[in-house]
Specification:
Blueprint (H helix, E strand, L loop, with lengths): L6 H18 L3 H7 L4 H8 L19 H14 L1 H11 L1 H9 L2 H13 L4 E4 L15 E5 L2 E12 L6 E7 L9 E7 L5 E6 L10 E12 L3 E2 L11 H32 L1 E2 L2 E2 L4 H29 L5 H26 L10 H10 L7 H15 L4
Helix pairs in contact: 1-4, 4-5, 4-8, 5-6, 8-9, 8-10, 8-11, 9-10, 10-11, 10-12
Bound molecules: flavin-adenine dinucleotide.
Length: 385
């Protein structure tokens, strides 16, 4: 067993960290307060090439391995969760199906500019009436004149208000429920596509979120992304594993930022004649956080390694996500307690970590939905060790 990162991975981490600290960190507070997508920063960041992290070099990508990509997601979330959400959407879910199933022409038209940051993508699962329960998807796609006609509304779409293209989950065979779902590429200029309300959010505010409307949107047959209709859920497994581990590492990053700031605060804040860091109850918070953080991060990288090795790891990815995101809730809560009343002031960072961390509980499967699946799996088979 060797728990060390390779020299290449360490070097990559240092390079990303430098870029994130130079470009994003100084603007994190401003991005959060504005609640707008920082397009100028996006362009500057895209020029570094990271948006093509997982895509083939022939389309302008970096073809990075899974561990490299996870290092990137972790470093990015250290500075601004909002910016990280938009960027990771572009790198992972927003371009995955186009990259894997798009025709050569689609890849040239959509993927290549997306990797350069010239086009923004997203994925649309969620609807007003269905989030966790994708079997309840009402958006439909019906075959007509050799293509497909899409009707429906999607809610809570990251990058929705600014996207140039989206991958839409639609029902192609209502009688089959989950087995009747398929993915379609829709570009913003397609007649019948429009944007609904932008959602004002509690956290992750630098990434804009909103509703997308599909009103008799006609797309050609090649815009069905997958191996024929009805394969949507089956084809989602690989990318969902990556999304879950990415979310786990986002959580580790936010937790670590929150508690690192709290550490500095505890060392200099004086109460009853000495720094609060001298009090046992404050020290206990750091001790517990340290243990949970190390365990969560270790498990997240183990799950990443399992993906990379092509091992079955669906439950490991779920466990990593569930544990790390809960650890993060605890860490941001403790950080705000250590800051006392100042945690309530906008000028101090803990409130931003506290708000941002909430999103991690939902994306990639809610805590409860993951627990349901994991509890059932444990009862069936026990732990894997
Ligand atoms: C900031 C943000 C960005 C997002 N971006 C996107 C995006 O880009 N694209 C997209 O498609 N979606 C996006 N979403 C939506 C997200 O994927 C959903 O919020 C998530 O899937 C949960 O669905 P829901 O909110 O409808 O909750 P519901 O599914 O309605 O769940 C409500 C509550 O019931 C619980 N619950 C549901 N089913 C069960 C069960 N079987 N057992 C026990 N408890 C259960 C849930 O855990 C939760 O506590 C985003 C959400 C947020 C907050």
């Amino acid at each position: 067993m060797d728990f060390r990162f390779s020299e290449e991975h360490e070097f990559f981490r240092t390079t990303v960290r430098d870029a994130v600290d130079r470009l994003i960190r100084p603007r994190a507070q401003e991005i959060d307060e504005a609640g707008e997508f920082p397009m100028d920063l996006w362009k500057e960041f895209a020029a570094l090439g990271y948006l093509g992290l997982r895509h083939p070099e022939k389309y302008g990508g970096m073809e990075a391995d899974v561990i490299t990509s996870m290092i990137f997601y972790e470093e990015l979330a250290r500075a601004s969760c909002g910016f990280a959400m938009s960027a990771t959407m572009q790198i992972l879910m927003g371009t995955y199906f186009v990259g894997r199933f798009g025709s050569e022409e689609i890849k040239q038209r959509v993927l290549v500019p997306a990797i350069k940051g010239e086009k923004i993508g997203t994925i649309c699962f969620t609807e007003d009436q269905s989030g966790s329960d994708l079997g309840g998807t009402r958006t439909s796609a019906v075959q007509k004149d050799g293509g497909w006609v899409i009707n429906g509304r999607k809610m809570w779409i990251t990058n929705g208000p600014i996207c140039d293209f989206c991958t839409v989950l639609a029902q192609t065979d209502p009688e089959k429920g989950m087995d009747g779902l398929s993915y379609f590429l829709v570009e913003k200029d397609t007649p019948g596509f429009s944007r609904g309300q932008k959602i004002e959010k509690l956290g992750s505010r630098g990434s804009v979120t909103g509703e997308l409307i599909f009103d008799n949107v006609k797309v050609p047959a090649e815009n069905l992304l997958g191996e024929g209709p009805g394969n949507g859920m089956r084809l989602s497994t690989d990318i969902l594993n990556e999304v879950r581990v990415m979310t786990a590492l986002n959580a580790c990053a936010i937790a670590n930022e929150a508690m690192s700031d709290a550490r500095k605060y505890a060392l200099q804040r004086v109460a009853f004649g000495k720094p609060i860091a001298k009090y046992q109850l404050i020290r206990a918070k750091f001790a517990k956080h340290w243990a949970w953080y190390e365990a969560a991060r270790l498990y997240a990288y183990k799950a990443a390694w399992m993906i990379q090795e092509g091992m079955p790891c669906q439950f490991d990815c779920m466990l990593a996500k569930m544990f790390a995101t809960e650890m993060c809730q605890k860490a941001v809560d403790e950080a705000t307690r250590i800051y006392g009343g100042n945690s309530f002031a906008s000028e101090y960072p803990p409130q931003r970590y506290f708000r941002d961390a909430r999103f991690l509980l939902f994306g990639g499967g809610t805590h409860e939905v993951l627990q349901n699946a994991l509890g059932a799996a444990y009862l069936r088979q026990g732990s894997s060790t």
